[in-house]
Amino acid sequence: MSSKRHSILPAVSAGPKPPVHFSSSITIADSALLTGTNLITISSESVIHPRAKLDSLAGRITIGRRCVVHERTMLGAIGTSGKVTEQAVTLGDYVTVEVAASIEAGNTIIGEGTTIGVGSKIGAGAVIGKHCTLTPHTEIPAGEVVPDFTVIYSNGMRRIDKRGVADLKNKGQARQIEVLRRMIPTNPAKFA
Amino acid sequence: MSRRPPRGEYIETDTGNKVARKATLVGTQNIMLGGKTVIQPEVMIRGDLIRSIQSSSSSSSSSSGTPNNTAVAIGRYCFLSRASCLRPPGRLYKGAFTYMPLRMGDHVFVGPSSVIQAASIGSHVYIGAKVVVGEFAIIKDYVRVLDETIIPPNMVIPSFSIVAGQPARVIGEVPEGGHEAFELRELYKTVGNNPQPAAS
């Protein structure tokens, strides 16, 4: 590859530019995709990787503190019900949304400290409790309520996470965010 | 009169790599392609997630201007299918979070929509569609990973195994005569701006 080129990022067609409310300490990659008409709020020290897509057509998106949203994710996708509510997607603090995960709009709430695994699909209106772990490719049907500290694995089986490591996970996430803030060139001004 | 050649779907480098124009490669200076590798459209490779802790020995070597910052190293004749994603695995190491390089061997086929976060993948590996390889997994040589497998983090898959399921389990072994099936030279010729028909 030519050394002058730093990245190959093909252009993606964008929708309407949404109103945003960013904290000053967030890291948002240049090629993150923010579309929609409602407010997108990102609280302090959260990280949005390149090519993450936040769509607020169906309602507001609120992302808590110290969240990490990886690439190819889709927050606020309009599901089959197609309903438009005031608050589309809410992420608590310390939430990690892994690569290619998809969270549908419609009052979907993800509790604090939860990890949404690679490629998972969260249906509209689902409520995920705190410090849950969703393994890759988990599908949560619409409206489902997942209690706190649940681990969902292997095609819908569940168990309760009794390790008591919630604090350690949060500290680990804070360290990860420190490193990511240095690595991902941030450009919040592009979306303001 | 001069006429520019028509823009093909792939960029062909002089080492024979075929990279699609619509692939997303972030941080290309940290991505090493071995040669004769095919990268299809919509592939995403995160080369910007480099190792953040540099060992002290690398700073003392004066021959290299910058420490080796490879994020993703890919061997020869690899094939990355559509919408797959390669990203280096990250962990808390000695108190700080750091990303480790992702190393792939030769003749690795990555199926469509797969997400690879392994630490290392050996040579002649076939990875099916929609596979998720967890962080710091190690896949040895001549392994066949079937479609929709989910390989948990830190799993080590021995050579010559066939792996499937969620979570992944070794379900069989590659038969004695099955080694030729992993060769990807023919597949490399069928892709690109001048695709040759597949040898039947």
Automatic annotation (TrEMBL), chain A:
One of its GO terms (biological process) is mitotic spindle organization. Its main location: cytoplasm. GO terms for cellular component: dynactin complex. It comes from the Eukaryota. One of its GO terms (molecular function) is dynein complex binding. Belongs to the dynactin subunits 5/6 family. Dynactin subunit 6 subfamily. This is Dynactin subunit 6. It comes from Cercophora samala.
From TrEMBL, chain B:
Keywords: Cytoplasm, Cytoskeleton. GO terms for cellular component: dynactin complex. It is found in: Cytoplasm, Cytoskeleton. It comes from the Eukaryota. Its main location: cytoplasm. Pfam families: DCTN5 (PF21711). Belongs to the dynactin subunits 5/6 family. Dynactin subunit 5 subfamily. This is Dynactin subunit 5. It comes from Cercophora samala.
